[in-house]
Amino acid sequence: MIPLTLQEIADATSGRVAGADPGTLVSGPLSFDSRNVHPGGLFAALPGTRTDGHDFAAAAVADGAVAVLASSPVTVPAVYVQDVTAALGDIARAVADRYTGLVLALTGSAGKTSTKDLLLPVLQLAGPTVANVKSFNNEIGFPSTVARAEESTRYLVLEMGARGKGHITYLTGIARPRISAVLNVGTAHLGEFGSREGIAEAKAEIVAALPPASEGGVAVLNGDDPLVRAMAGKTAAKVLFFGTGPTCDVRAEDITLSGAGRLSFTLHAGGKSAVVSPDVFGGHHVTNALAAAALALAAGVPFETVARGLDGARIVSGARMEVTDRPDGVTVVNDAFNASPEATRAALDSLAHLAGGRPVVAVLGEMMELGDRAEEIHRNMGKLAAARGVDRLITVGGPNAAAMAAAAREAGMSEVEHVADRAGVLPLLDGLPPKAVVLVKGAHSLALDEIAATLTTSRK
Question: What Å distances lie between residue 430 and 168, 448, 455, CA to CA?
Fold first, then answer.
C-alpha cells in the first residue's frame, strides 16, 4: 500500500482516530478477513449476518494490523467511521490519487477472472503488477485491490463486477482507468438488468469513464460481440477491437484444440504474428486470451513480450476449468466457482475434447439471477447436455435445476438425477465408471467446488 497516516485515512473517510498516534503510518494492505491480516496494514471490521468483524479487532491488531477501521467501539487503535464499506472506497480513492502507474480495468458477463489471470504473467514481464485476488471485484474486494498498489507498481489491473446500473461507475470513481476492456455481454444477472441491452448499458460504464484518446485513454472491445462493439460510440478514447473477425485489431486465427482440449492459436496484431498456447482448456478461452493480449498491447507492452507471456499462461484463481487426472484414470473438471448460461455452455462444449470418447458425467447446479427466463434457460441447458453427449447428468438446486433434468430426459438422456443440494451429490458418484470425465459446475452459492475437491482427492 502507498503509505498513509491514520490521520490521512481519517481525513479521507470523514472519520476520527482513537487510541493511537494520528501520525502512525499504515504501509500494509487493507484486509477484511482477520485470518489474512498483514503487518503494518489496516483491518476493516465489516458487520456481517453471521459474524461481526469488530469481534476480531483485537486479534487483528495482535497479528500485526496498525489499527482497525471500525463503526462500533473496539478496545484497540482505530479509525472510527460511519460506514466501513464506504470508508474502504474512500481509502482506496486516496491511494489511487497518489498512484502514478497505469490503471487497467476489465468487465464482462463471463471470463473476467480468467482474463485477469492470463493478463497478469504478461504484464509481469514488463514491470511490477498488482491485480485482483480471485474475483475480488465488488465494493469490498475492489478497494482492497486498489490499496495494494505501491509506489513501485507499474500496472494496476482491476476486475469490475456489476449487479446493477451504476456499480461500475462507482468503482471507476475510486480508481479511474486509462485502459478498459469489455469482454462480452451475456445473460448473467439477467434478473437484475431485465435484458442483455440493460446489461450492455451497465458494462459500458467502464468505457464511459475513460479519458479521451488525447490523454491516453484506450477502450479494448470484443469486436465479435455486437453489443460490445457498439460501445465504441460511448467513449472519446482510442478503440482497439479484439476477436476473430477480419476487422479486429488483435485477432486469432488457426484456432485449434488438442485431443485433451488445450487451446492454441495464431495471434495477430500490428502486422506481427505468433503461435501461442496458453495452458487452458476450451475454445471459449480464445476471447479471454485475446482480451489479455489487447490490454497488454494497449499498455505499450511489445508484441513479442505479449506472445511470450501468453504462451503457457495459466488460470490460477481456481475452480475455472481446473482439470485434474486422478491415478485411477478418472478426470475431474472443477468449473464450480460460478455459473452463467454462457460459461456453462462453454464448459459443456469443452467436454467432448476432454473426454475423447470416455464416459462423461456432468454435475450441473442451478444458475442464479436469470429472472423470468430462468426456467427456459435451464431447460435449454438440459437439452444441450444431451446434445453434447453427456452420459449421465446430475442437477443440483431448486425447481429450475429440476427443469434442467426434465429437459435432458425429454431429449433422450436416460441417466438423469436431480438433488436439492450438494449433500445429495457424492452418494450418486460412488463407483464412477473407469476413466470417466466428471464436470462440476454451478452457482457459487451452491458451493459445488467442495464436491469437486472431494472428487479430486478421492481414489475410488
Answer: 44, 16, 10
Q: Which amino acid is residue 299, in one-letter code?
A: A
Question: Strand 360-365 to strand 392-396: parallel, antiparallel, or no bridges (unpaired)?
Answer: parallel
Would you state the pLDDT for residue 233?
97
Mean pLDDT value across the chain: 94
pTM above threshold 0.85: yes
Query: Per mean pLDDT, which range of 83-92, 116-125, 134-143, 428-437 is the poorest?
Result: 134-143
If you write DSSP's letter for every residue of 245-279 in order, what string do you get? STT-SEEEEEEEE-TT-BEEEEEEETTEEEEE--S
Distance of CA 163 to the CA centre of its chain: 14
Report how far residue 371's alpha carbon sits from residue 356's, in angstroms, rounded to the nearest whole number.
36
DSSP state of 422: G
Q: The C-alpha cell of 209 is what?
A: 469513464
The SS3 call for residue 345 is helix
Task: Say if residues 323 and 332 touch (Cβ distance below 8 Å).
Answer: yes
Please state, in angstroms and rounded to a whole number, the distance separating the CA atoms of residues 170 and 10: 21
Q: Delineate the domains of the chain, giving CATH numbers in brackets.
A: 4-83 (3.40.1390.10), 99-310 (3.40.1190.10), 322-457 (3.90.190.20)
Please report, rounded to a whole number, the percentage of residues in the chain having pLDDT higher than 90: 83
| Cell reading at 314 | 495459466
Neighbouring CB atoms inside 10 A of 97's CB total 12
- What is the rounded CA–CA span in Å between residue 56 and residue 406? 47
Q: pLDDT tier at 459 (50, 70, 90 boundaries)?
A: low
5-38 pLDDT tens trace: 999 999 999 999 999 999 999 999 999 998 899 9
Q: Is 179 strand, coil or helix?
A: strand
